[in-house]
Known about the structure:
Elements: H1 16-24, H2 32-49, H3 51-66, H4 76-110, H5 131-138, H6 141-174, H7 180-220, H8 225-236, H9 239-260, E1 266-269, E2 274-279, E3 290-296, H10 298-309, E4 314-316, H11 318-327, H12 339-355
Parallel strand pairs: 1-4
Antiparallel strand pairs: 1-2, 2-3
Helix pairs in contact: 2-4, 2-7, 3-4, 3-7, 6-7
Amino acid sequence: MAENEDGSEKTESASSKKLEDARNKGNLPRSKDLSSALLLVVAAVTIYGTGTLLVRDLSLLFNFNFLIERADLFDFSRMVFHLYESVVAMMDSMILMMSILAVAGIVGSIALGGLNFSWEPLTPKLSKMNPIAGLKRMFSVQSLVELLKSIAKVSLVGLIAVLVLNYFLPETLGLTFQSIQLAIAHGIDIIIWSFVFVTLALVLIAAIDVPFQVWSHKEKLKMTKQEVKDEFKQQEGDPLVRGRIRQMQRQAAMNRMMSDVPDADVIITNPTHFSVALKYDQTGGGSAPILLAKGGDVIALKIREVGNHYDVPVIQSPALARAVYHHTEIGDEIPEGLFKVVAQLLAYVYQLRNARTGAPRPEGMPNLDVPDEFQWDGS
Length: 379
């Protein structure tokens, strides 16, 4: 089980943020064995595919250099020209082969982990210059494992190479008795098959190393439970702070709502559990009354207190209060189905207001029948 520096166990898989941070720092799973195996496979295929071109160029090169005139050996300018001609003779086949191998090398290096650009590994770090830390890395368990892996890989590849050389030794010695063109073709054939056998060993090593590197990378990036909590706090914020912010937001919203209560035309109550404050702007062209404030229990009581303080009519109508409370949000117009009953209530409130100026007082509050679809059953 992976452990942190403080000894706590890393039991949690790396979060998406930690994986992204590791990628930005260039910390990705890589397999050198995969790159080497792919490079050799491509090299063998390339030599096999371009064998005819390679044999032709090598034959011309050997003929050109073995048939050099004796006088040219003592002429510097002739030897320079001879070297130039030799390079040109091999240029087309070598450029083709080197280009393919270069692409294979790049693909092999990014096959595991993908393409990634990061300047982080190039950033100078004083910790890397610490000799004590360097000695710890040299004699760590990870270094010992890497050493054993290297010895095992070299031993396996070396054994395969010795067996291949021993198998092809008679044919290799027989090349001296063949013509140049035939010897080159036969030699390339031996090289291809040698590549194949050595590559098989590296492919086997890569097949083991790739899953190991992926597993090792995941293990190194594992997190402790405390690290997961700390990262969550950094991303989402401290729960206590977030709770305090939400509380302040609710308080600010309630203060704004309470500041609108004095402008209400009427406050409808349950009378104890719900209170809603409505306003109808007769001059603003509004089509329906608007809900300025609503609340239950303590907030409902506070709405009634503010309404009484500012002499806003408070009407008890439990069914209508519940209907408006549950079917209307603050700042919205009341539903169309409540237009009639609210209009009856507002007409009654206006009559009460006009009665203060000497107008006849209404005989009684109208019967406020709330439609069945707006009745609240408490569920």
